[in-house]
Design brief:
seven-stranded antiparallel sheet; 6% helix; 3 helices; Jelly Rolls; single chain; mainly beta; ten-stranded antiparallel sheet; elongated; 339 residues; Hepatocyte Growth Factor
Length: 339
């Protein structure tokens, strides 16, 4: 079972959340051999996803490690459709400046990066997240060689755009057509792991709360198709930022509590909802539960993004109609009983 540690400060009549964090300690940290894709400088292999719907917001997160420090003219995120080859595109200039091209017509330039710093950042395994919202900004977050904490690395304001439906996503290439027209000189020679894509903009706090259990609602690495004679390797271990325990631990101190919420996939509790707050991830939903004194468990749906807070724990009612542990796989129930 997966466990999430939440912290809260309790007082009469209300609850004030101090912080939400995922346990990331050497004792019991979860190291996972995620599937790793290696993109060589060739057009004969790539990973892709088709039929991506219309979007006005976007979050893409992944582990990246570049083999070469030659980034000039190399591409790493490419969306194309029938309207534009470059519906959404990111690449590096010779001055280590990242460029973002949106809806085939407008290019936005992030501030140039220090070459030495960027070489270290890109040639080592680091986590990167890119967010965008129409009429807002494109932001690059990364762990900057500290795998525990994301920081805002670069950002640029963008205009109002709608990414049109029927998109094809290709990683580490530029498409000059729909899944076509790729140039080996523009391919990023790099490794990729833990890819996830969401159709909404995540905040920095939400990004920092992500674990390997959080999956994109638009694409995951497992849902990507493979072109060419390639596969995935599993010889790299990644700290997934989660802690697995066999039993619930509760530690009460003066006006504070720490609690592990246990995760049950394919389960849902009905008829005990006390609130339905908006939440842009499972971690955010569980954090909302920790901020209420009357919340004992939470339901999160990975397909719809719905979050339901309950006043009882589901497994206590196992076998009763209210608790369904054979629900659709998109349902996740978080409870505060023993894992």
């Amino acid at each position: 079972m997966a466990g999430i540690i939440l912290s809260g400060c309790f007082r009469l009549g209300c609850v004030l959340v101090l912080s939400t964090l995922l346990v990331n300690m050497s004792e019991g940290s979860k190291l996972v051999n995620l599937p790793v894709f290696y993109q060589e400088a060739t057009t004969s292999k790539y990973i892709y996803k088709t039929a991506i719907p219309e979007m006005t917001q976007l979050t893409i997160c992944m582990w990246m490690k570049w083999v070469s420090t030659d980034r000039a003219g190399k591409y790493f995120i490419s969306f194309s459709n029938a309207n534009a080859d470059n519906e959404f595109l990111t690449w590096f200039s010779p001055t280590d400046q990242m460029h973002v091209h949106i809806t085939g017509s407008t290019t936005y330039n992030l501030d140039s990066c220090d070459n030495t710093e960027l070489n270290t950042l890109m040639t080592n395994w680091n986590k990167h997240c890119f967010t965008w919202t129409s009429g807002g900004s494109f932001t690059w977050y990364n762990t900057k060689n500290d795998h525990d904490i994301f920081i805002k690395y670069r950002d640029v304001s963008t205009g109002s755009h709608t990414l049109r439906s029927g998109m094809n996503l290709v990683m580490y290439h530029d498409q000059d057509g729909q899944l076509s027209g790729m140039d080996s000189n523009q391919a990023s020679n790099a490794y990729l792991a833990g890819l996830n894509v969401w159709n909404y903009e995540m905040s920095l706090d939400t990004i920092n709360a992500l674990t390997c259990e959080d999956e994109g609602n638009i694409a995951t690495q497992a849902s990507m198709s493979i072109y060419g004679p390639i596969g995935f390797t599993y010889d790299e271990s990644f700290d997934c930022g989660s802690k697995y325990r066999e039993a619930l631990e509760k530690l009460y101190t003066f006006k504070k509590q720490s609690i592990i919420m246990c995760k049950v996939e394919g389960a849902k509790l009905s008829n005990h909802v006390v609130a339905t707050p908006s939440a842009d991830s499972a971690a955010s939903c569980v954090a909302k539960c920790s901020s209420r004194k009357d919340c004992k468990s939470a339901n999160y749906n990975t397909s719809t993004g719905s979050c339901e807070l309950n006043d009882i724990n589901g497994p206590a009612y196992e076998g009763v109609a209210d608790y369904d542990d054979n629900a659709d796989s998109s349902n996740i129930h978080y409870h505060s009983l023993e894992c």
